[in-house]
Amino acid sequence: MVFGVYTGPQEPEKPLALLSQEEQAELGARKMVEAMQSCPGKTVMAGGSGFVLGGFFGLFMASMAYDVPVGNNAANHISELPFKQQMKLQFSDMGKRSLSSAKNFGYIGMIYSGVECSVESFRAKHDIYNGVVAGCITGAGLSIKAGPQAAAFGCAGFAVFSTAIDLYMRSESAAPPSNDYDD
Q1: Which InterPro entries does its entry note (predicted)?
Q2: pLDDT per residue over 71-115, tens digit each?
Q3: Which of 53, 30, 31, 36 minimizes the C-alpha distance to 117?
Q4: Which residue, among 168, 156, 83, 82, has the nearest Cα to 128 in the 3D structure?
Q5: Same domain? 37 vs 85
Q6: How many domains does the chain have?
Q7: Using CA atoms, how far apart are residues 161 and 40, in angstroms rounded to an integer?
Q8: Residue 182 lies in a domain
Q9: Is residue 32 part of a domain?
């Protein structure tokens, strides 16, 4: 059994020392694929990739936002500071914004992926409804502190967004149209 799924009769595994190099590589690859297809593996991968994507997004957005005053005094603009001080402030702010965005994207990716995998495992089906339910639970969970109305809007918003993305992704992998002459 692999993560609750019966995969048929299994032959007993030989000790690692008795396996050839090719058999060891095959066993290692099989274990890696099993780990990546598990709910914890999918959750960690989604969190990591969300963290990286969020970091780049935060870095990009932070590089565009230097038209605001520095500090509490509205008379101080970043353009009035010496160049070295401007660069120090900009890089510091870019790092903070990038890290904040990376954490948020990683957190959302982990929650969504973990919930979707859990729902799929519970339902024992792979269809679009898993993403809808995961989007609803994720959106509601992220906005629950703001009250039940915010949780309902978060649920609806994330569910609609998740459905739109799933439908788009499924349309790209569909069979080509019958008038496709690229043979």
Answers
A1: TIM22
A2: 555 456 767 788 888 788 888 888 898 999 999 999 999 999 999
A3: 36
A4: 168
A5: yes
A6: 2
A7: 24
A8: no
A9: yes
Output the CA–CA distances (angstroms, integers) from residue 19 to 1, 26, 28, in the order listed. Answer: 22, 10, 12
Crossing angle for the helix pair 83-123 and 39-62, to the nearest 10 degrees: 150
What Å distances lie between residue 70 and 64, 86, 164, 177, CA to CA?
Answer: 15, 10, 40, 56
At 35, list the tokens. 């780990």
Say if 158 falls within a structural domain: yes
Same domain, 75 and 150: no
- Length of the chain as a residue count: 183
Query: Backbone phi, then psi, for 68, in 5-degree steps?
Result: -105, 155
Same domain? 36 vs 100: yes
- Helix 128-143 to helix 83-123 angle, to the nearest 10 degrees? 130
Provide the token pair at 118.
């859990």
Give the span between the Cα atoms of 19 and 10, in whole angstroms: 17
| CA separation for the pair 174, 168 (Å, rounded) | 10
- In this prediction the pTM is 0.71
Contact 136, 118 (CB under 8 A): no
